[in-house]
Amino acid sequence: MRSFVLCQGRAKLSTTSRDGKTLIVRIAEAGELLGLHAVVTGKPYELTVETMQPSQLNFVRREDMLRFLNEHPAACFRATQHLARDCSDSYGVVRTIGLSHSVSERFARFLLDTAADGEISRGRCASAWP
Q1: Partners of 20 in the β-ladder
Q2: How far is CA 102 from CA 106, 107, 111, in A?
Q3: Of 68, 38, 36, 34, which Cα lies nearest the Cα of 51?
Q4: What gap in Å lies between CA 72 and CA 66, rounded to an integer?
Q5: In angstroms, how far is CA 16 from the centroid of its own chain?
Q6: What is the mean predicted confidence (pLDDT) over 104-116?
Q7: For burial by CB atoms within 10 Å, which of 17, 37, 59, 102 has the most?
Q8: Which helix (H) or strand (E) holds 125?
Q9: pLDDT in tens, 40-99
Q10: Residue 105, H or E segment
């Protein structure tokens, strides 16, 4: 099992139901660590990642990531913040779906939430984690 660092590009994180329906959870930006939940818990990945543009990803083996987090309290704290943000994002998706009155309202909210600012970030990979 590995975690991945999205060094360049954007990626769509989604999940699929048993009946084949896909739900986009969020859009990941350059500099983000993907798969941290699976690495920390040792459970299978819960999301599918699909790049949205040419991207660069690097991987970190589970053992290396866990050792790094154990040896570097600041990085462990950042990982906790990352997991808390993922949890908060998931709550937002549930609120949007559960409290929206129509499909068009949900789609409009998705477009607003995932709108790009038009800039391509480069070189954030090295600065994302201490």
Answers
A1: none
A2: 6, 9, 14
A3: 34
A4: 10
A5: 15
A6: 70
A7: 37
A8: helix 125-128
A9: 999 999 899 999 999 999 999 999 999 999 999 999 999 999 899 888 878 877 777 777
A10: helix 103-114
